[in-house]
Amino acid sequence: MRRRAMSHNIKRLPRRLQEIAKKEVEKVSQLKKEQSKSKSRKARRRHGSLLMEFNRRQRKNIWLETHIWHAKRFHMVKKWGYCLGNKPTTKSYRACYRSMTKQCLLQDLSYYCCLELNGTENNLLKALARLTSVDAGTTFASVACLSGKCQGSLVLYKADQYPEKPLGPVTFLWRPKTQPDSSSGNRQLWIWMHPALKMDLLTELQLVCQCLDVPVPEPAPNECKTITYVPEKQTEVVGLKRKQQDKAGEVVIPEKKIIGNGTRDPSTTVVWTSLTNGITIEDLTMEILRYRLIGPLSHCVIFEAIQAADVPKNSEEREETKMYCWWSEYCTQPEKMSLHNHQRDILQLLLGVASPAEISAGTVLGLTVGDPRLNMPRNRTTAIPDLSQPEDLEKLRDLCLNGIGAEYAQSQIWDRNVRNVVTETKISEQKLNQMRSKLLVPGTRLDLGSQESKIPILLVHQPGKMAGQEHTGWGSGWDILIPKGWGMAFWIPLIYRGARVGGLQEGAKHTQYKGLPHFPDDFPDCPAGIQHSVETKKELIDKYNKYPPAKRPNYIHYGTMTPFRCPWQQLVEEWEAHIQAGDLKLAVSGKEQELKFEVQNPNYKHAGVHENKASEEMSNKEKPSEPDEEMEEDSESVTILERNTGCKNGKNVITQDTPAESGHVSVLRSRKLLKQISMWCRPSSSRGQQTQRYRGPAQVPLAADAVKSIIGSYPRFLIWVRLSLLKKGSPIANATICVPSKEDLQLLVSDPNCPGPQESKHRDPFKQKCKALKNKKRALPKVPETTTAADLGITSVSGCGVNLVQGLWPDQIRNVISHCSRLAIGYVSQGDFSLTVGCGEALGFVSLLGLLHMISNQPPNHRGLALVRNPASLQYRFAKINIEV
Amino acid sequence: MSLSLSSSSLYILPVSMAENQPTAPASEGAMDMDQVEYTLRKRLPRKLPKRKNDIYVNMKTDFKAQLARCQKMLDSGCFSEICIHGLGLAINRAINIALQLQGGSFGSLQIAANTSTVELVDDLEPELDEGEPLTRTRNNSAIHIKVFHTLPQ
Fold it and tell me: Which compartments is it annotated to reside in (chain B) (predicted)?
């Protein structure tokens, strides 16, 4: 019944509807009765019941400690087993960007998982070396990271599988060597990763460390680490309320607030020990919180919010405070005290630095700080860098040049016992407020003296944009690592210093503007990335189906085969076949290229272009007629070529295997090769001399041999590129990256302001089928209800087994690269109008073979120019391909 | 390090490099830097306190826009003087802006220039595990031009 006056009176309805209405009313009244049984809102909102309700709700998905704060202000999503804030409910897209660029953006990254590895340095390095490769940059063993001075980051692979089968990106942190520990040689290593990657990595780590996958009988880990191991129960749940009221007679234990991982069964093992090499793997998920501050002001926000802990002045005071044992015990050791004093000095010194971009990347600083809740400003303020007092310019300069020493990265947060004590002895908010209310002068700072909690934390510098020439240092900031339980105690003070809070969306934008791939969206070769793309495709198709056919783009007309995902697999396979078919042509054009390098005469160059074009046309004509024969021939020639080329190690063995186990794409991460290709992609125009100088002796000129050797050894690889659009246009995800034809380049030369070529509209071969099916369905007598607009669009053909949706290609797609008038070489995985650059910018992958094919056929002054076309548009746009290393 | 010029016309004196050669210990190790082993990454120049009437000139923004910004600042009457800073390649542009301002003012504006040297830091990131991360310092020249009204009319 409608929601109107007198709608409760059934007799006012037409008689034919009265029956239905009656049923409805009954149904509603039944529901209402059930609801009324539950408690009143007031009762439900009482603290105890609320806590119970909250605890019930976080059994399934983990809540971060800032969950309630976020839930009031953010659109929450359930992802990867967590409840996370996606984006603020307020309109703040640009405001968040401004915060990142000019002020400070805060993000709760506590959902990132931490695995702790414990063992001797040699054993650890030996085990972990199987997951990494020096070819892709520095590894766990890099000198700076191994000392604990820097945080390192890398992409891990399945054991001994490099360059294929990557797992995903991680950051890692070694605990600096402590003097007494150095003799035993046991090192601690934290590996931080995205939760989508955790299970894959954990199994792989257990494999390489030879840790047993079967749960170790409980006593075994307990025995080996009697000192450090604390039963899980106590660490999981910490009483927060009614501690004071709990008299001796009261047996009923009130509901406890869940701190840490509420979804995990307390009996599940989180520690795995290897019997052969003594490595221990421990799952520290939700044990350590991680907040990320991005932006130039993050520096002063953090250093205003935290203050180094006070040192107890004399021995008497120490004796008083038996409760806060860890700090007073810590203070008795003179060398640790001096370390703390040094760390405090560095903190003071860092206040003089205006922006985190001025400090060396990845610096780590350990600290012990006082309770940040005690020196909160009364109102929300904006932290402003105070640069007026250049007291120790010389020291500051030294700090910026050499970074913070490895010994100052030491923090007690690495110690599990200390972490637990700190979590348990936290003074509750309520207690703190009670003490505040007893202050003689209201509003003054509460001085707890020695009772004040001391929290060990770790500050990790996050480098900003590193690769490329533009906007270096953009988006740099600090990560702050806190023991669990202290989340809100740090969160609010940071916000009161002027930090704006962003969610997942802002995090993704941050990585996008930095030009880095975002996990898991931009890792099409990782299991988590594949999973993610399947999920997003489903979501997008569901959304597409909700619109009537006339109100949604017909992607077949636009010539877009896969508007909701990127068919990487088909792309690389087809390029492989394409290159094999046209191998001869590439060699010819390569020779021409060399000639062009030597002869600078523009006329000659022009002629070369024409020749080139002609040869391409010819080969294009030949191709469709007899592709199969050529392929067979050329596959042989390629194998011979592989034998001839210089680089044939383990890699070639792997590549020869790949065709057999079809269905694999990999992303190129070899730094040497990336650098080389990045150099080739640059146009050799007016700044040619400059690039020449940068090249150095190791640089290989773009020649047929070099290209061939790469093609031979990396046939099915993708390469990460950044596209910046020359003129108008804002690319979106799944846009196609295409090779411009010669005419397009000439068009650009003749008219620099031209918008770019157009794709002609495609014919929809499925339209008639769809219509026929629809009519058939309509004609058939069917179930009376459920024919909404969306259902009309979807016509499932049970006979054929194909789902035909009007406007979408059926699932079996072929010929993705030459479906349109321009050859496709790749797809955009994320694109947007970039607020940093002020033009459209896209990040995506292109097929390595396609890219090499493109640049070797382009004239040197236009090298690296590509076309981008959105899925629902016929307009191609010119874009510049950048490969940044 | 900085040389102040009192006259209204503009000179740029070359800052002698011998005096300003830094004695950073890190730079010694960088001498035998192998290009294959390290990647060079430039850090941003040190941020200095900025007043409302400081204008930092860059090469990315349109020249006319930067000139108009300075003109607007002077015309607004809020500031009796503005300071135009240029570093490295932007020195030319800073001078150009200052001279254009002066030329367009029919003698009511005067300029005074200072030059200085700014120390910049380059990071050398190792490509191999054995390499220590290094930092190098290099110097770049900068100019600070004060543009001010000669006499209150």
Answer: Cytoplasmic granule; Nucleus, Nucleolus
**pLDDT tens digits for A526-548?**
888 888 999 999 999 999 999 98
Give per-residue pLDDT as tens, A369-424: 888 888 888 888 888 777 666 667 777 777 777 778 778 888 888 888 888 888 88
Cα–Cα distance list, A362 to A151, A348, A830 (Å)? 5, 19, 26
Nearest chain A alpha carbon to B129: A142
Closest-CA distance of chain B to residue A513, Å: 17
Domain B52-149 indexed as CATH 3.30.450.20 = no
Overall average pLDDT of the B36-62 stretch: 83
Q: Assess contact for A878 and A725: CB atoms under 8 A.
A: yes
With 60 as the cut, is the pLDDT of residue A435 above it?
yes
Closest CA to A556 of A792, A802, A820, A736: A820
Query: How far is C-alpha A399 from the chain's CA centre?
Result: 30
B35, B36, B132 ranked by CB distance to A143: nearest: B132
Predicted local distance difference test score (pLDDT) of residue A293: 93
> Which chain A residue lies closest to B45 (C-alpha atoms)?
A358
- pLDDT of A231 over the 50 cut: no
> In chain A, which residue's Cα lies nearest the Cα of B122?
A401
End-to-end CA distance of chain B: 36
Retrieve residue A409's tokens. Answer: 């990265």
- In the predicted model, is pLDDT for residue A227 greater than 60? no
Q: Contact A493/A541 with Cβ under 8 angstroms? A: no
Please report residues of B whose CB lies closer than 8 A to that of A361.
Answer: 41, 123, 125
What stretches of A714-766 show up as alpha helix (H) in DSSP? 742-750
Hey, of B33, B46, B89, which one would you mutate to test binding to chain A, going by the most A CBs within 10 A of its CB?
B46
**In angstroms, what separates the C-alpha of B104 from chain A's closest C-alpha?**
32
Query: What residues have CB less than 8 Å from A837, skipping those under 6 apart?
Result: A470, A471, A724
CB contact under 8 A, A472 and B123: no
The residue ranges of every structural domain in chain B are: 52-149
* 3-state SS, residue A525: coil
DSSP state of B106: T
